[in-house]
Design goal:
globular; about 0% strand; about 425 residues; mainly alpha
Length: about 425
């Protein structure tokens, strides 16, 4: 059965079938070989997306689109430029810091790459930055989107495994900041070597003006995360609050959002959401087939028969997920693999919240690794360079992410400190 599933999936992937249909076709072939009715496909797709916490996904996507259209992103970029634009390679640092701010709103790497890249890649190349470097900074910085809370991947993981979504959000704070600082360090070293420009040190008046313009943009992550972490509302309710806030600020405060633009934004967000939910639904079908065949139990038994050392188990799982991230969409990978791997991890004493964050971080790294690195393709379309050139340029930033992955894996308190302070970990 596993051989049939593997061959079917890889064959569909090789001929260019979209990942959602790869998963669905593989599940359908498996059901037919088991003599089960194909009605199971429809039933399991519906079951997979019939979840209240998953409502956060379309809301966060819509909130990101509203903020981009309503001027929030542009104000965050200008404020970030005032903060760090005076450092050597100023616009690269602006790119990274703006992505950190935007990560606290959208929860999506693809949305961040599109929003920031559309503004800063042309600006960086105009100021003399190599286009490969500009694209690499944008692609790498965008991966902080699913790490710094809120995060769509964390919502999916929490729904799939029952781990606290709020706890996962809290776990992302310190690693997210570490990612940003490491990216800025790499950007600074490269900028020094290539003598990239920097902007003049801003005056107090310029700092005040930028802060005043960005006040409502900066309040968005405070409201969203503050409400979740203090228990005022759930992650799903927070996503709805983010939509309302983005709409009101864009329409009445920034006045860059117009009622006539809403139908287009709703359609755009609906299309993005439908693609993601179709992947989640078909992945749920495949996960059900694997569960029916007791594949998770067999994998868990195999790993535990090989070793019960938690450090070695973590190493094997990390290496496995890094490879998976190269070939499978993140949401699908979480739904199919997380229940299996979390059982193995908890059986050897790894904290469920710690392990959940490690899985999400692995999946996020997959956004930067070919052949399926989604952020690479988004940025390639914005910068008009080949994927090969971008992969070479992004390598120093990718190595930083992998280093942070292993730091978080073997020093659990890096991820668990904030959840512990907030009461998610006893």
């Amino acid at each position: 059965m596993l051989t049939l599933m593997g061959v079917t999936f890889l064959l569909c992937l090789a001929v260019g079938v979209p990942i959602a249909f790869c998963l669905g076709i593989t599940a359908a072939v498996s059901l037919l070989s088991l003599g089960l009715p194909l009605q199971v496909v429809a039933q399991r797709i519906f079951t997979g997306i019939d979840s209240f916490p998953l409502l956060a996904v379309p809301f966060f996507i819509l909130a990101g689109d509203l903020m981009n259209q309503g001027g929030t992103t542009q104000r965050l970029v200008r404020f970030s430029n005032v903060l760090v634009g005076w450092i050597r390679g100023g616009l690269a640092h602006t790119n990274i810091v703006a992505s950190m701010f935007l990560a606290g709103i959208s929860g999506s790497a693809v949305a961040d790459a599109s929003a920031i890249g559309g503004i800063l890649i042309p600006g960086m190349t105009k100021e003399g930055y190599d286009v490969e470097f500009s694209a690499a900074v944008t692609a790498s910085a965008s991966t902080m989107g699913p790490i710094i809370p809120p995060s769509i991947f964390m919502v999916i993981y929490g729904v799939t495994t029952g781990v606290s979504v709020g706890g996962l959000f809290a776990a992302g704070f310190i690693p997210g900041v570490l990612m940003g600082l490491s990216f800025m360090t790499v950007a600074y070293v490269i900028s020094r070597r290539r003598n990239y420009p920097r902007h003049p040190i801003p005056s107090g008046r310029q700092i005040w003006e930028a802060l005043r313009e960005a006040t409502f943009a900066l309040l968005a992550p405070v409201i969203i995360l503050g409400g979740i972490l203090t228990g005022v509302f759930t992650p799903t309710e927070a996503a709805a609050v983010a939509v309302g806030y983005a709409f009101l600020v864009g329409l009445w405060v920034h006045r860059e959002l117009h009622i006539k633009e809403l139908p287009g934004l709703l359609i755009q967000s609906g299309i993005t959401t439908s693609v993601l939910l179709l992947v989640i639904g078909t992945a749920n079908v495949l996960a059900w087939v694997l569960s029916a065949e007791q594949v998770p139990q067999k994998i868990a038994q195999g790993l535990l028969a090989f070793t019960t050392n938690p450090h070695l188990i973590m190493l094997l799982i990390n290496l496995f997920l890094l490879v998976v991230g190269m070939f499978m969409e993140g949401g699908a990978a979480i739904i199919i693999l997380a229940p299996v791997l979390s059982q193995v991890a908890t059986s050897v004493g790894i904290h469920p919240l710690h392990f959940g964050f490690v899985v999400v971080l692995n999946i996020v790294i997959g956004l930067l690794t070919p052949p399926l690195g989604v952020c690479l393709f988004v940025v390639c379309s914005l910068s008009r360079i080949s994927i090969e050139r971008l992969v070479v340029a992004v390598m120093p930033f990718l190595l930083c992410e992998i280093a942070i992955l292993f730091l978080v894996s073997y020093v659990p308190m890096v991820a668990l400190l904030v959840p512990r302070l907030l009461g998610y970990v006893q």
